[in-house]
Amino acid sequence: MRDYCYTARASAMLREYKDGRPYPWPGSESSFILYPESANQTIYTQEARASDAGRYSCRASNDTTIVNGDITLQVLGEDSNNGYKGRPLPTYKPASQLVALGDTARLFCEAYLGQVYVPDAHNSVTWRKVGENDTVPEVGRVSQYSVSR
């Protein structure tokens, strides 16, 4: 599980917080650490624990501006015999994007779907482009991808 905080200027200062307390956090409070190759822009944990749940925020600042980003992390426990059976839970909140003509664009849709142990049940994620015509053509500039587990 990864949380990201980006800044546009290399000279900006980044600070991470959990429940209002600045990084670093005691291991009993959070197992998240700074990802060294990210110039302090990413915190991560290899194995989420119940104590990792909480409100994380990052603050990017330069001489004139401060930008804050907040992320609430929920850690779900699973009974290994039954699995999670609740509604899909968003794990990444999609955001509108601005892209220059000809540049690469990448859109994310991510949710925790749990595991399904019933043979005739399945989870799926489907993309569509919303507009005047809500159907997605099978050929052309827009493609539809459906991933099922």
TrEMBL record:
Ranges annotated as spanning the membrane: none
PROSITE patterns: IG_LIKE
Record-annotated Ig-like domain positions: 1-74
InterPro entries for the chain: Ig-like_dom (IPR007110), Ig-like_dom_sf (IPR036179), Ig-like_fold (IPR013783)
Name of the protein in its database record: Ig-like domain-containing protein
Species of the source: Trichogramma kaykai
